[in-house]
Amino acid sequence: MSEKGLQATRGFYRNYIKKYYEDAHRTKAEKRPVAWVTSTFPVETLLAMDIVPVWPENYASVCAAKQASVELCERAEREGFSRDLCSYSRCVLGSMFGEKEDLPEGGLPKPDFLVTTTCACDTHLKWFQVSSRLYKAPLFLLDVPYNISGADSKNLEKAHVEFYVSQLEELFSFLEKQTDQKLDTKRLRETLELSNRTSELWMEIQNYRRTIPCPMDARDAFSAVFFMLCIPGTQMAVDFYTGLCDEVKERAKNSVGVIENEEYRLIWDNLPLWFNLKIFEYLNSLDAVVVTETFSHVWAGSLDSSRPMESLARKYLPNIANSSVQRKIDMILSLAEDFSVNGIVLPTNWGCRMMSIGETIVRDVVYKKLGVQSLIIDVDSSDWRNYNEAQVKDRFETFLETLR
Amino acid sequence: MVVMEVLQWFRNSLSNKHEIAIGWKRQGKRVIGWTCTYTPEEVIYAAEALPVMVLGDLSGTKLADAYLPSNSCSFARSCFNAALRGDYDYLDGFVESNSCDNRGKIFDLWKHYSKIPKIYFINTPHTNTEKAHEFFYQEVARFKQWLENTFGSPISDESLKKAIEVYNENRLLLKKVYDLRRKNPPLISGVEVFEISLSSTVTAKEEHNKLLNRLLNKVSNRSDRPKEGVRLLLTGSVMDNAELIKIIEAVGGCVVADDWCTGSRYFWNFVDLRGDPLRAIARRYLDKVPSSFMYHHEERFRHVADMAKRFDVEAVIIFVLKFCDTQMFDAPLLRDELKALDLPVLYLEWEHSISGMAGLKTRIEAFIEMVGGVK
User: Fold this and answer.
1) B residues 59-118 near A, CB within 8 Å?
2) DSSP assignment of A141-192, as one string?
3) ipTM, two decimals
4) Residue of B nearest to A93 (CA)
5) What is the pTM of this model?
6) DSSP string across B91-105
7) From B268's CA, which of A10, A233, A313, B230 has a CA 20 to 30 Å away?
8) DSSP character at residue B71
9) Could A122 and B335 be called an inter-chain contact, meaning their C-beta atoms sit closer than 8 Å?
10) pLDDT in tens, A277-317
11) Which domains does chain A have, with CATH numbers?
């Protein structure tokens, strides 16, 4: 039996994303603190202090899905920002220049302050430096050592964890100063526990996708990951995933798959084409289903609320973006086996060095170890000006044929 | 030696850099390659090895293209290509750093596909707070230990102090050479200065110092001075070849100052000779004129403004290597700061290749004409 989208994610944009931005604007209007934040930043710290995190990266993906990102990118380019920069950053910078009236979600609320980290990329730091200057709002940087050995969270270098933890202490002083309130350690503990619950549920959902046929597609995963990535330490995240988990579990139990004839089970690396999520349906039409994504496996983590600072360091520091390629290879090797995968899609991202360099090593090593083939496609997550749909479809078809 | 011959020595040491390194090895010494100017070279020097900056060339990157996507830094690609071609097979060791996303990720490729026997990675913070200093000091100490263990020779405080002296002398002399361009017309051309400062990254510093002293003693008598031209400052990521400066100086420009990794940012700051030498070395690197990946990038903008004043600059060209994210983000901000100082600015993105440069010639020419015409 097959059924496409899930009930829980139906109307996801309208019910959750749109509402999230409306709430953020309301928070700003009520003069409560709003902070801009980037992925791999330990967002639980903000949530524990009732600071509303606003995610420019998420905003860019929303603009792309609404086909509005290119026009905004062009605005940033007219101000002198190179077309080769990260399209997320160009899109959001573009939204800061010029007319505000027609912006998706009414634009982003201005930040009272910004927090970022070097954990994922240089772009986060540089993009937020520019934003901080434009909005004259203070910027806090969490300077994270590069996990060169590719260690997992248990085996990180002591010096790396210590440097990270020492900066978390500074971060809380910064947040306390910005919000004029003290950190409530009980509240922090609760947030970490909610974050753990979010992670557990999210991973349980992912594990049901190992089932043949796979009960949940990439399109649903790339929507639903919002809670895991952006607001993991909230009751809202736990509630949403509880419902989603029940549904996916039920589908798995009853062998309800995304497609009927599941000939190709694929892993999708990096980001989707936010402006063209229909590409996953196209894959379905070729009897292929994306059964898991690396992106769905890099945000969950287990936090020890008796050692909050250290466990935040251990959760975020070994993100694959901040690690030697070996860590990504290890992840893909185990996903390929656990999810009975027979092909891997490695989309690069034009403005992103982290997602583009090293994919050849992934392809070569995974093939050598498991005999599973990969397809590297050069695309951009949010800027479609160089995107050639016919060519991409053609490459998918040829790739799938070689997997036969 | 007349001035011409001294200048020729610098030029030759660039074109013969591999032969020089191999000659060094014949004397039983080691050669260690590095790529980022945050590498504490003094420690390598103190280990009695020759530190050389790994450089690419403009001849194309066919070999590296098989591994690197087209949206990665073409300079880093060119360096990796040279390694794949075997140009750097003589290296006893190679040191990389996470000073930008391109480098951090390309390290994986060096590890997988190059033949260099020993490679090492230094974690470079992006801040220079006291905590970052302590972290970086530990990293530099670990690097020292790695050199000692890998090559079996201990590095004493005495040899570190000696290295600091030699390196500081080099920095001082290079600054004096730069100052030869404060005059109008300058005593030395942009191409000549470029060859001098870049050759410092691939030759033994003591030898380099000797030649710098010789040059400084004789240069005031030179008869073949450069012509007067539009006084320019060039800023950007890294520059490993004189081609762009040749283009500029052929169309009426006169390069009198720079801000890039292989120019002033390489040597502008000294190591403090007081106190523990290893700590002093580590501190110098995090506190130097920052590259664009650092949190305190505004200090770099200040450096550019200071240089523009010191060298009586009339206009600035921002040369950004394609896919150098940190520079691309800085460029519009730097442009605005310089315009506020009434300095005309030309922004150019360039691909590290001969054709990538030739395409810029017309715009450079028009810009220099425009600035020159205003005079």
Assistant:
1) 66-73, 98, 100-102, 104-109, 111-112
2) EE----BTT---GGG--HHHHHHHHHHHHHHHHHHHHHHT----HHHHHHHH
3) 0.96
4) B329
5) 0.96
6) -SEEEEE-SSHHHHH
7) B230
8) T
9) no
10) 999 999 999 999 999 999 999 999 999 999 999 999 999 99
11) 12-179 (3.40.50.11890)
